[in-house]
Write a structure and sequence with these properties.
single chain, about 200 residues, alpha+beta, Immunoglobulin-like, seven-stranded antiparallel beta sheet, four-stranded antiparallel beta sheet, 2 helices
């Protein structure tokens, strides 16, 4: 897969509210001949803050290569989970057969005032050579100047993730189904023409 330009990735992060952390696809490129490395970035909005435990989730990352999860900074720790306790934003169910990438902030609190802040790159490798729009979620905090409390913020959106590759048996079943449907249509046309 060729490198995906950051501008295209930014366009895919639609529906971004003002002052919210967003996740964008920085690139997708071949890590080795057998897999592709998807690299993401999280950008804090002008009023966002990070506290220990803030999270970034990429749902249903198909074809995950075991042990390939990474984060460029020491303050972001990557892990995988099969089903997330945090609901998806698009109303679809979290697929228990596909891995979710979970990145948790473990560093000192970061409070933003008036400028964006980039957390660096993170991601994983996949054996899939297909892509689709997938769900993402960022949970950060915002410091409320009026009452001196931190308010939790959830940003939800979509970006490109690896798509599942159908098993050979699934392909065979689909092809057989198309053949049966085509045969049924031919028989129906003959009956209508004869009748």
């Amino acid at each position: 897969m060729k490198k995906l330009p950051l501008a295209v990735a930014m366009l895919l992060a639609t529906g971004t509210p003002a002052s919210a952390a967003t996740i964008v696809l920085a690139s997708g490129h071949a890590a080795r001949s057998s897999d592709t490395r998807f690299t993401y970035r999280a950008v804090l909005g002008e009023e966002d803050s990070l506290h220990r435990g803030s999270t970034f989730i990429i749902y249903d990352f198909a074809g995950y290569v075991a042990g390939s999860i990474f984060a460029s900074g020491a303050d972001l720790v990557g892990s995988v989970e099969m089903v997330s306790a945090r609901a998806r934003s698009d109303g679809l169910l979290d697929d228990p057969a596909l891995v979710n990438l979970l990145f948790t902030y473990v560093g000192a609190p970061i409070r933003n005032y008036g400028e964006s802040f980039d957390l660096g790159e993170f991601g994983a490798a996949t054996i899939s050579d297909q892509t689709r729009l997938g769900a993402v979620r960022a949970s950060t905090v915002r410091y409320d100047m009026n009452d001196g409390r931190n308010v939790r913020l959830d940003w939800q959106g979509q970006l490109l993730v690896p798509a599942p590759i159908p098993e050979p048996g699934v392909w065979a079943t689909m092809i057989a189904g198309f053949g049966l449907a085509g045969g049924a249509l031919r028989i129906r046309r003959r009956r209508l023409a004869a009748g």
